[in-house]
Amino acid sequence: MILKYKEAKRVGIIDHAGCFASETINRLKSMGLEASQMVVFFDRPEEFAPLRETDTLARQLKPDASSTMVGGFSDIDKLIITLPLIEKTDYRKRMFEIMSAARLAAIGHVVILAPSPGFGNFTHPFCNISDHVEDVDFGLPYTLLLNGIDRESIFNLAFLRTLSIGGISSATLGRKFNFASRSDIALAIAKVVMGKHHKNKIYHLTCSYLHSFEDMAQIASRLTHTKVRNFNVDGNTLKKIMVESGTPLQQADIMVEVLHRKIAEGLFEYTTENLDNILSAREENFESFAKKFLVLG
C-alpha cells in the first residue's frame, strides 16, 4: 500500500555506499512519490552532482554539526541510509552524529542498508550486530537491510575482467555464494520505505539460489557456445590477473580480500527468501542477467 505523504513530510536519502541513490529515487518515483518529496543529503557538493537530473531537493550535511542536522531533518518522516563496505575515516563519529540528529528530529522510520556481517572485520561496528531484533537499539523505529555481495561487482570486476583473458579466475576454493542485484536492492529499499509492516525488523537480502564461479563459467559457455573455464588460483595470483586486466589495485585488493576470501570461508553460502518476499516477485537469475552483456556465439 502506498502511503499518502503530506506536503510537509519527505523521504531523506544518505547514500554513503555511493551506488544506490539514483535507482532508489527512480523506484520511489514509480511508487508515487514526487521529486519534491525527496531530499538527498550529501557531505560534499560533488557527491550530489550525478543526481541533479533527479530533480530532488539537496542539502549538505556539514562536518561536526549534528545540531544543524536536526534542522535539516525537521521535515523528514523517513530516512534512508546506505553504509559503505569499507569504513571511512571517522565514519563511526559521523554515523553517531547522523543517528543522534535523527532521534532529536523524531524521524518516524530509518531504513539502513548495511554490509552483511559475513564481511567481518572489513566492516564498521554498525554492521557487526546481532541478527536478533531484541539486541538492536537505534533509539527510533528502524529497518535494517543486510546486503551481501552485489551481482554487478561480481559480474563486472570478477567475471568480465577475467573472462576477457581467456577464462574466469577465482580464489574461492569452489565454494558457492549468494548475491543480489543493485536494482532489486533499491526496489527493496523503496518497498520497505513505502510499506507499513517493516519497522523494527532485520532482513538479510540475498538471491534465492547459490552459484560458484564454476557455475558461472558453465553459464558463459552455454551463452557464448565456447568453452569457458574457471581457473582456481591463489589470492596473489588473482590480484595480479585483475590488475593486468585493468582493475585498479585498490579495487583488486577489495575483491580478493573482502569477497573471494570470505566466499572461500563459506560465509556467503546461504540464501534467504527475504528479497523475494519484499519484492513480491522472483529476482532475475544470473543467466538472464549475463545474457544481456555477453557476446553470444
Q: Overall pLDDT, averaged?
A: 83
Query: What pattern of helices and strands is seen along the backbone?
Result: EHEHEHEHEEHEHEHEHHHH
Shape: globular
Task: Kindly name the structural category.
Answer: alpha/beta
Bin the strand percentage.
15-25%
- How far apart lie the N and C ends? 45 Å
Which blocks of ≥5 consecutive residues have pLDDT under 50?
121-125
Roughly how much helix do the residues carry, as a percent range? 25-40%
- How can the largest sheet be summarized? 7 strands, parallel
Q: From the alpha carbons, calculate the radius of gyration and give it in angstroms.
A: 20 Å
- SS field, number of helical segments: 11
Q: Give the spatial strand order of the biggest sheet.
A: 3-2-1-4-5-6-8
What does the model show?
This protein is of the alpha/beta class and 297 residues long. It is 37% helix and 16% strand. It contains 11 helices and 9 strands. The strands form 2 sheets. The protein has a 7-stranded parallel sheet with strand order 3-2-1-4-5-6-8. The protein has a two-stranded parallel ribbon with strand order 7-9. Helix 1 (21-30) packs across helix 6, helix 3 crosses helix 4 and helix 8 (235-244) runs antiparallel to helix 9 (249-264). The protein starts with 9 loop residues before the first strand and ends in a 6-residue tail after the last helix. Mean pLDDT is 83; it is low at 121-125.
Key phrases:
297 residues, alpha/beta, seven-stranded parallel sheet, two-stranded parallel sheet, 9 strands
